[in-house]
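[audit] Reproducing an earlier prediction to check determinism. Same input, same settings, fresh worker. If the tokens differ from the archived copy the diff job will pick it up downstream; this log only records the rerun itself.
[audit] input (65 residues):
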Amino acid sequence: MSLIKQLWLAIIALLVLSFIGSLAISITTSRDYIEQEVRIKNEDNVTALALSMSQLEKNWSRWSY
């Protein structure tokens, strides 16, 4: 195999490896970001549910005898 062919193969291999590494880092970062956003949204939903339930108890106590 000629030196030029080896050089081209090395360049192509480096490009493929750098692309795969970049893709892996991007996927990991995106997954972490999405998990954080979902966790924040879940906390907001729990807070809203707790608030609505606390208001519901006040309304029921008015109708109790």
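[audit] rerun output stored. Observation attached for the diff report: The helical segments are 3-63.
[audit] end
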